[in-house]
Amino acid sequence: MLSAKDTSELSDEQLVEGILQGEAHLRQILYKRYSNLIFGRCFSLTKDHSVSQDLAHDVFIKIFLKLGTFKGNSKFSLWVHSITYNHCINYLKKKARRSEQSFEETDLEELEQVGDDQEEKLLLEMQLQQLERVFQELKPTYKSVLLLYYKDQLSIKEISAVLMMGESAVKMRLKRGRDQLSEEYKKLHHG
Question: Tens of pLDDT along 132-158?
Answer without folding.
Answer: 777 777 888 888 888 888 777 788 998
